[in-house]
Each structure stands twice: as C-alpha cells, then as structure tokens.
Amino acid sequence: SEHTKCNNTTSMGKKSRRTNRNKNKVKNNKKKSSGASGTATEDKSQSTENVEDILSIGEETETIACDNNDTAAAVATNGHAKEEIEEAEAEEAEAEEAEVEEEGGVPNGLTESLSLLTDAQRKLALALCEAGQSHLFAHWPKPSGISSPSSQAVAKVKVRFMEQLERMDAGYESRGGLTGYIENAKMLLAKSQAGENPLEGWTPSVPTGNLFELGTKDYAEIEKVGLGEVGACGFVLVAGGLGERLGYGGIKLALPSETATGTCYLQYYIETILAIQTKYSVSGMKLPLCIMVSNDTSAGTVSLLAENDNFGMDADQITIVQQGDGVPALLDNNAKIALDTKDRYKVQAKPHGHGDIHALMYTHGVAEKWEASGIKWTIFFQDTNGLAFHTLPLALGVTKKHGFIMNSLAVPRKAKQAIGAITKLEHQQTKEVRTINVEYNQLDPLLRATSFPDGDVNDKKTGYSPFPGNINQLVFDLHAYNKAVNRTKGSMPEFVNPKYKDEAKTVFKKPTRLECMMQDFPTILEGKNETQFVGFTSIAADLCFSPVKNATVDGVKMQENGTHPGVAATGEADQYEAVAKIMRSIGCKVGVPDPVTFAGITFVPGPEIVLHPGFVSFPGEYKNRFSRPSSVQISANSSLVVSGRCTDLVIESLDLRGALIIDCEEGATGGVIRDLKVCNQGWHKVAVDESEKDEVLRMRGYRINKTETKTITFKKDGSFVEGGDSEPLPEGIADLLSPGQTESSEKTKECMCTIQ
Hints:
It is a single chain. The protein is an alpha/beta fold. The chain has 24 helices and 32 strands. Strand 7 and strand 8 form a beta hairpin. Helix 5 crosses helix 6 and helix 5 packs across helix 9. The longest helix has 27 residues. It is globular, with a radius of gyration of 31 Å.
C-alpha cells in the first residue's frame, strides 16, 4: 500500500521538488561566486570525505521514506510510465549536480547505495568520484528502503554497472587501473589539444633493412637458414574482430579463406603449424598457439575449435587469452567517462588495441612457459591474411642471421599510402636510435619538419616510398622478448586521436579513447644492446599480405582510387596467385587468366590452386614436390587441390586443363604423379546477387560451380583409385564439391585429351 501511495504522488510532488532544487542551485551558485571573488577553493582531496566515513554512511543508512525518484527509476527499469520517469530522472540529475559539491564529490545516490556493493566496488566507486567521475553516479536514485520487484531491479542494475567498472579496472591493472587510465588520458588529451607532436625531438631517416625477391639466390639462402629454425616457433594469433564489417555474422576466423575447399582461416593456420611441427620440430615437441580474443569473439572461437576437434591440434598446445571489456570512451579533455547512450547503467566501451597482447602474454605467463619448453622464436600474425606463412622462414632467417630481437615483415609501400611505415628515428638529444613503425598520418609532417622537405614521396627508380610498409607480422627472439616484457609487464605506450568539432579543440565530434599497438614494442627496449637489434624484412605484398578487412562496397571505392580493396574476393584470388607465383619461380608453367569483375571488384580469378601445407608449406619445399617443374603445366582456367594427407606425394609431370583433386586415404602418404593429362570442363565462377542467402558467397559476388572434376586417391598399399565422370567419389573428396554438384562425363569439343 505504501508503494502504491508513492506512485500516486508523482505529479503532486514535482512542483515542490523543483522549488527545493532551485533553492539548492541558488545556494550553490552563491558558494561558487564567493569562491570566484577570492575565497580559496578547497583541494578536491581535502573536500572529499574520508573514504572510511563514507563507507560507514552507506552501511548504516536505511531510508524508509518513500522517495518518488527511487520509485520512478524502479518503474523505468520495468518499462512503465516512460515519459514521466525520464522527466523525474532528468530533475534528479540536475539536483545531484548541485548536491555533489556538498557531498565532497560523491552523489547522494551513490553514498546511500554503498551497502549494495562489495568492499572492492565501494572503493572503486569512491576513487572514481575523487578522479572527477561523479557524473557516473549522479543519476542513481536513493534507495527507498522498501523491498519490491522494482527496487530490486534498480539494485541489480547498479551492481551490474559496478561489475563492468571492476572488469575494466582489472583489465588496466598493469597501468594503475581506471584511475591510472584517467590520469594518462588527461595528460595525452592535454598534449593533443596543445598540438604537441609525439615525435618531437626525433629525426627520421631511411632504415637499413633486407629486401628480397622470390626465386633469387639470396632468397633461397636466407630461407634455408630460417627452415632450420622454424621447428622451434610459438605462434600468436591476434583475433579480436567480428566479421560484421565484411557482411558476415560470425567471427572472422571462421570465414573461408577460399571457396575451392572451404577451409576457414583458423583451420588453415592450425594445419600449417601442425605441418611445420611434423616436418621441422624435434621428436616430441609441440608447437604452441596463443589466440588473443575479445569479448565479442571469445565464445565463437572456443566453439569453432570444439566443433572441429581443434582442427587436429592437441588441446594443450592452444592458449586463449582474452582482452577485457575494453576501455572507457571519453567525452572531453577532462577525460570524463561516457555512459552508454541507450543505458545509463553501462559505460560506453571501446577497444584498447592489439597492443594488449604483450601484457596478456605477460600476465598469463605464456611466453615464459614457451621458453621453458624449448621454444626459441615467437611469431605474431593477424586473423584474415591467407598469405601469412609463405615468407615465415625468410623472415626467421633474417632474424637469426642478424641477431634481431624484433623483425617486422614489410612490403613495398607507395608514398602517403594508408599503412604504417618502418622508419629509423634518432633522438636529437639522447642520440637513442629506434627502427619502428610510424603511422602514415604522422610520417609526412615529420619528414617535412626535419630533413625531407618534400615529405613522403616515391623514389624515382623504384616507384615506391623509401619507407617500407608495416603489415604487423612480427618475429621475436623469445628470450629477449621475455626480458623486455618482464621489465615492463608488457605495457605498450598509449596514444589518443580525438576528432575535434572546434578550432580550440575543446569539443569532440564523438567520444575518443586511449589506444596501444603491438608493433610499438621497440619503445620498451633499453640501451644500445637492445635498440640496435630491431630490423625489417621486405618482400612483395603478393607473396605475404592480402588481408580481408573491408566490405565489398567499400572495396569498390578503394579500388577505384588505386588502392588494394582488401575484400573477400581479392583475398581468395591472391591466395591462388601466391601459390602460382611460387610454382612459376621454380619453372612450372602456370597460366594467367584475364581479369574478371564480380560485385564491382576486379581481380585475376585463378587458376585455383590449393596445396595443403602438409603437402607443401614454403617456397623452399616446392622443388621437392614438383621434381620436374618444366613438365608441370596448368592452364589459366584450371583448378588443382592437393590434400594434406599426401605428405610424400611428388608431382613429376602433369598437363592440367580442367579440375583435379589429389587425395590420400588414411594411412597413405602418396606416390608419384607422372605423365598425367587431365582435360575436363572444370570449375567456373558464376555471379550471385544481393539476394544470395549465403553470406560467404554474397560478400564475394560469385560461387564456384564445380562442373567436372578428376579425382585420384592413393591407397595404403601404394595403389591409387581414379574418380570422375560418373564414378562415385572416394570418401573425403565429395566434401570438396559444392552442394548439389555432381561430376559430369560430358567433355567439351575443345577438350579431347586422354588420361594416362
């Protein structure tokens, strides 16, 4: 009955509350004007009540008076009387702004709600108020003291809010928690507002690095050095992103890297690591994989692994580390934390950046555990680059030869291209030297302000900028890595990049946040004995870098502007072309088809060549697999798939004009393909439109119609079975064909060769 009585007094109480609050405003305005005329304003730390006193107030307070605003908030939680509640809460927020000063920076609603919270939550809430974040709690209604579903619901959302803040605080623990975040943000925002250059005092120059071309003697020699080390690598996959931006509902790791076999990115990465382990590791050694996930991708990653039995990798080889809830978004130069626009009991969170991986490697003890198990090198790579491993032995060989602590794989870069640049920096006073990534928007003004009056321009001889592009594929000496990370707890330097509305830089266009990047690792190295051992290895992008990161519609615009579109169709096409390029480099005759356009994206469509890493992993292995390269011919529109079980297969001579799948049954390892001629109708890409239900096909703009396929399956006894025409396919092969597709015995008039 008391609860009902309070609900009925909502309208009656508004006028008197407004009057009282206006009096409070006048009272507080007098205080402020008094301070402005000369009365000293107390320091915040002095004006804030003792933490223990406030905690005791929260424990002892039991307000039984029926406060209409508490009722209003409770009703709002249940979705009733929306307009009335919003007005009441707005008035409450106004009142609290006036009352905060009287309460020493702690809103009454928080003070009287402290009994709901744990000791840790109370201390965190009060610490945030002391740090200028009282607004986070200004809308909290005072508890009515009446137990009801409504009041319980309000209590729950308050606790939920504090639980989110606790997670954010823990995620930033190595830097001082949320109060440390606020302090760092105020400092960086002040520098940004003042227009300070973060690279002030550093002089850039062209870095000295190693540039390689596939098929050369230098490439082969350095790759051979790397092949001797690749069996002692641990792998770190930075995979915090969803596929929403691409038009895909799942995690990006679940995306098929190509549609010839449908192998997803995570499967491809794991199968490559297992192939390296089988071929190059000492007996009994397991190569570990650490996957960094976010709250968005954690469940999807765990599920993908579980549903596929870890794609053949033992469970004890995989470590999953998770970023926290992100970091709070910031509203202004005072680092005022932003509340969610749709839920005032939730902080607006933003990603902190992939630089968190180093702190996670430290806090979870991953890198130290790896080193203790015999791992010597650590490879960092990102989630949707199907070319990630082709040049791994090359980069590893350079790292080994020069004794690098950190080696960045880089690609030739056009001037002003929107990709970070590897740059040599020397500090004008300390003479410290760094080889480090400089973001493209900082590079040109830095060059112009120092010894490069023309800024970032292309070299006339090469057509590229002398500053190579960073692709965030990193190789570390694990012992030296651990030494630096243990010293700093893995914390990378932060930066802020607010977008301002006004020239005075006082208003943000949208909330900003602090970020960090994993490639800034050289900043935590100390002394010449560390800083001089950072380098880069440069190779053409078509062999090592084709990320899938953009929606098709955005990719069309980028391609029109002369930039690689980075979409699913080009990611797939570049995978086929990278394999074809390696085959051509050893003397195989692989055709080049005319470009095609699907969904506005133009690319070279094939030939579709998918060689499982168990068969061949790196360029240095190809001559052993294609023993007579000049006798291997693959036409421009052909398709070749080799299964991973065929670890001992050798293709000596082949004339392929159509589609061929080579597999080995369980327990078989292959044989020799000699004088084989295959000619059939093969596979063809067919356009799909926006109505296509399969989002994997829709984002590409095509499907592969597998019209006719020749299959060869090697048996355990050394024999083989041929499939094709109207014969049923061997087990394991049928899965590679599109649903509803069957093999056709019909040959085109132009395709009259025989199979020998």
